[in-house]
Amino acid sequence: MVHISEDEINNIRKQADIVDIIGGYLTLTKKGQDYKCVCPFHDDHSPSMSVSPAKQIYKCFSCGAAGNVFSFVQNYEQVSFVEAIKIVADKVGYHLNSNLDYQKKEKYPLEHEIMELATKFYQNNLITKKGIKAQEYLKNRQINQDTINEFQIGLSLDDEATLSKLLIKKGYDLQKLIDLGLTNGDSNHFSDVFSGRITFPLWDKDGYVIGFSSRIYRNENLPKYINTKETYLFKKGENLFNYHRAKKYAKNKEILIVEGQLDAIRIYSTGIKNVVALMGTALTKSVLDLLKNLRCQIILCLDNDDAGLNATLKNGDILLNAGFEVKVIRLSGAKDPDEYIKEFGVEAFKKNLTAPFSYLDFKISSLKQKYNLKNNEDVTLYINEVLEILNANDNEIYTELTLNNLSKEFNLSLELLRNRYNSLKKVESVAKEIFLPPKKNIDKLTSLDKVIRKVLYYMMNDVEYINLYQKKLGYFTDKNYRQIANEIVYFVEKNRYINIADFITYTSELSINKLVLEISREDEELNQRYFLNYLDLIKKKVRENRIQNLKKEIHKEQDMYKKMEIAKEIAKIKKEVL
Known about the structure:
This protein is an alpha+beta fold. The chain folds into 5 domains: 6-92, Alpha-Beta Complex (DNA Primase, Chain A), CATH 3.90.580.10; 109-234, DNA primase DNAg catalytic core, N-terminal domain (Alpha-Beta Complex), CATH 3.90.980; 238-364, 3-Layer(aba) Sandwich (Dna Topoisomerase Vi A Subunit, Chain: A, domain 2); 368-435, no CATH class; 447-577. It has 26 helices and 16 strands. Strands 1-2-3-4-5 form a 5-stranded antiparallel beta sheet, sandwiched between helices. Strands 13-12-14-15-16 form a 5-stranded mixed beta sheet. Strands 6-9-10-11 form a 4-stranded antiparallel beta sheet, covered by helices on one side. Strand 3 (49-52) and strand 4 (57-60) form a beta hairpin. Helix 3 (69-77) packs across helix 4. It is globular, with a radius of gyration of 32 Å.
């Protein structure tokens, strides 16, 4: 287990100004003493996140995200706490004394080892005499040696089981090779899955090979492509081809989604690195989550045929409904990006990239192919479908512009179109009320919770309030609040100071960290009179709760002697108040 001393962590945190670090990821705007930005942790369209240079913390007043510089990097980069420390240290030029040769723990180390060996074996086959025809095929497809090396393109030989025999000889279990989709058959007779094909590794989001795509390269009457079957390691619905490379270039910018792996390889080799390819399925929740991590605009550039059009519309709707900003490129004169670049050149392709359609414009424009717009009945159907598209996407400015365009194009009253659109809105609103699922009961904070959190917030920010707490209260009945208070006291005894940013780091591995982050979102100027009032309120509320509980005990108790004892306890508590 990697260990970094607390002193080192605090030193890094003190050298890492949170405004500089977050400003390296997001655009910050100064508002008073703090900075504002769009929150990257939810679908935010107006600046909801506040960054405090004084306290060295951030907090979002919309989704509740909060923390210090380490927790921001950890959540933004989707890395572990230790990795976040290393990233921040690198950014501020801090040399770690601790041994931080950190490797992310692999879930499938044996499987990754096998797939890596298979990849190298296939690569080596391609450069042998038996790979000459495959090399010629790749050359004719204008795939150069640099691209072959970058994408680790290889060759599975015609021999039935060369890879399988090699791996078995190295001690790997045959059943494991079958489970990973490298081998067909059983112990009596087995063969390599991709025999006689050019191989293309498929990677997961972290860059581990999890499967292969393969293609015939001679005029054989065989399926053109064979991919690894679905396995516990390779699930095509959870991955995008080339994502592990593209994510470095796409974050907070844009990512290009294409249909085929060769399209992605071709585009990447031209210097456009922010490109991924679908794995032959519609976008799933897992893939949407991968894309959301990039917080970028999506450009769809799928095949230029009917199937590609349908896939563009299907995936465009999925992306739009998931909150993405979506653009579309449709290439003419070629079937796909690979053919287009070979036919018309890189510059022509890049020119298309500079002027993509907005997805809604593209969707509305594509509708015209369905209808004969010289026929009034078809015009009516077309306009109604456009209005339904507008109704499904809540963008007032876009709606107004589109209604104006429809009015001019078909010489219709703008008022008529607005009334029709508003009637759809009304129907949708009623439908939502009817079909809306019942609201779940959400635990709300009690008045006592709110006051205790304020007390803890004060204590996290100034030693003075810790001393007052110990002198005048010293104890919370709730175990979580009590643990936080105890940890605050321990932190000060150990370090002789307190600030909220370092205390967040200190509790990062504790079960109370989530609650600490929630309390850090409190926003109140420290005031001793208010703090003392809060302590009095807590004592009063605790006494009231105690009396209420004792009264319930009296009603339940049958023994008169015990009833008298409980009554004395109530009287004693009331006397203490006086």
